[in-house]
Design brief:
By secondary structure, the protein is of the alpha+beta class. It is 27% helix and 23% strand. The protein has two domains: 63-176, Rieske [2Fe-2S] iron-sulphur domain (Rieske Iron-sulfur Protein, 3-layer Sandwich); 179-416, Naphthalene 1,2-dioxygenase Alpha Subunit, Chain A, domain 1 (Alpha-Beta Complex). Helix 6 runs antiparallel to helix 9. GO terms for molecular function: 2 iron, 2 sulfur cluster binding; dioxygenase activity; iron ion binding; monooxygenase activity; oxidoreductase activity, acting on paired donors, with incorporation or reduction of molecular oxygen. Pfam families: Rieske, Ring_hydroxyl_A.
Length: 434
Amino acid sequence: MSHPVKPRPISRNRLTSAIGPERLREISTAFAERRAGYSLESPFYTDPGIFAADMEGIFGQHWVFAGSIAEIPEPGDYLTVDYGPYALILLRNDDGGVNALHNVCRHRGARVLTEPTGTTGNLVCGYHSWTYSPEGALIHASAPGEAGFDKGCFGLKRAHSRVVAGLVFVCLAEEPPEDFDEVAQIFEPYLAPHDLGKVKVAYQQELVEEGNWKLVMENNRECYHCDGHPELACSLFPTWGLTDETVPTHLADVWQRNLSAEEALRTRCDRYGLPFEVVEELDTRVAGIRISREPLDGAGESFSATGRRLSKKLLGDLRDFRLGRCSMHLQPNSWFHFLADHVITFSAFPVNERQTLVRTTWLVADDAIEGVDYDLEKLTHTWKQTNLQDKNFVELCQRGAASPAYEPGPYMKSEYQVEAFISWYVERMKEHLA
């Protein structure tokens, strides 16, 4: 029986050949000389060589959030995911897992599946009709008279895939980072009560931001700029990331309201047996994570102008709408909000050194009916606007980073998670380049 090709890393020689050994040494030196506590030097955001290194050392080696099982709910459903030079097919299999296959035909390299989503049995390349099983094995190649052609040698190349609490992760490395198992054990109890096995996609937004992927992630990892998010400020406390010592005078009342809401949320979580505490290991492990349950302002139920629920249907086994948000950050490319009435997933997929695709997906209970249980425009309004505002902020930074006048500036205390992300990134790249 033929089997698909096992995961195999992209050769380090490919990067050396692409940018040259001297340039590779320059890039390694830049990582070694990075100044802690400051933003990165301009080339980290603008240089094609560093982008190529990022794709090999970060996106080619680490677990990347690719989507949720709600996007591929039935066997045969697939979605395609592209980042940097990589193109993958994520195909739901009969066992409930996900096959991750490189979307590159083994004949002459054509894309096998060209639609972003769909349903398929076997995978048929549209160029010369080479046909692959859902596991990637080549089962048909129209090659009359080709003596000695062994179909077993030409299956689609595979990547590693994992489904944890309804989230789908992929890794292109031959040997994925081992501590992801430990991280999965951390976040699964937080997510399990929301039961992503019983949700559906309400809406998906894709934005191409004219900015380097690291600027997208830096912007996400702080709320120093949250005055620029008026819709989000209705429900998300603008004191996020602050402490008693760093709260400015004009936010003192908000800070006290936040502390009261936090205590009320803790009481509810204790009542329902929901994990609450902050787990923050963003740069102290290979698979960096931050997760917690945090209160929302107003009614404390959802991302609306009043804080009231946006869907009438509770998720999973939850018994109360007023549970704030379970917020999770995972390195290198994702962040999430799990609420009692819906879930929002965010993923950043680098396109090139100056562009990043940000995909946002809203998930509701699978029996929720649009127009009856939720209003789609109201459900998506806050984060649609917030994403557009963040797109503008990222693009402002990208233009600035490309200026001859740019030089790295210091991160403020409230931006400690930005420093944690950059510290994680630099350490991973130093390990890879070494």
